[in-house]
Amino acid sequence: MMNMLQACAPVAKSRPDDSMLVATMGAMFTFDMIEGPQGNAKGIPTLGGTAGLLIGFAAAKLVKAVSADDGQADKVRSRISSVPLMGGAACLGLGLALAQPDRAVVVVDGDASLMLELGGLVTVARAKPRKFLHAVIHNGTQFTGLGNLTAPAAGFDFAGAARVAGYVHAERIDDAQVWEQRLPALLAMEGPVFVELGVDPVPARTKPGFVQDEMPDRQFERMGQEALRLQHWLRGESA
Questions:
Q1: Above 90 in pLDDT, residue 223?
Q2: How many helices (H) and strands (E) does the chain have?
Q3: 222 lies in a domain?
Q4: Could you report the per-residue pLDDT of 201-222, keeping only the tens digit for each?
Q5: Which residues, 6+ apart, have CB-to-CB distance to 237 below 8 Å?
Q6: Per-residue pLDDT band at 194 (split at 50, 70, 90)
Q7: What is the pLDDT of residue 186?
Q8: Angle at Cα 238 formed by Cα 237 and Cα 239, nearest 5°?
Q9: What residues contact residue 156 under an 8 Å CB cut-off, 6+ apart?
Q10: Domain membership flag for residue 52
Q11: CA dist 29 → 14, 23, 64, 158 (Å)
Q12: What's phi and psi for 56, nearest 5 deg?
């Protein structure tokens, strides 16, 4: 099994510069950590286990601290978070793929999110977007890194469901090195392509005495703000 950083960092490093990325909440926070304002994840180490996750996030903080925060990097501007649209990542990505068929679209979904909208697999498969990679983070939890509630179908075969739904190709990958090596080939395939990633949950933070900070308004407004930023990027305009 890989950790969350090992699941997301290859996408941040390898997706084409003119591609678009849709992410659900767990992946969204990870991309926030590793991409920084310049959209550059190349210097972030991706080591295994919980220790590797913490080392990678610590390195990301250092990289962000010395980066200019101009918010204009294409890798950041071409990303949109499917939050609070839980369960809608696949169809949000599909809309982008149909509107921009010559650009690759990568969807990094969550297992608990996808369970809410399994019908989206059929919708994507029937639409047949050519440059569409749909990855699901299968860690068996909801609110990973907070309370780690058990997902409603922790043993569900997402790759099998995508295959039955009609995706051109579907597979499961549990090894971080295999995922990093396979990603370029998966991006190059005629889509829609699906990959189920076996990922360890982020360690839970809840314990006696833990107090959750109130979620800032930005987390509920960011999808609309990112949509506008993405629109400017597609037009070749500055945000």
A1: no
A2: 10, 8
A3: yes
A4: 877 655 666 565 666 667 678 8
A5: none
A6: very high
A7: 97
A8: 115
A9: 111, 115
A10: no
A11: 18, 9, 14, 23
A12: -65, -45
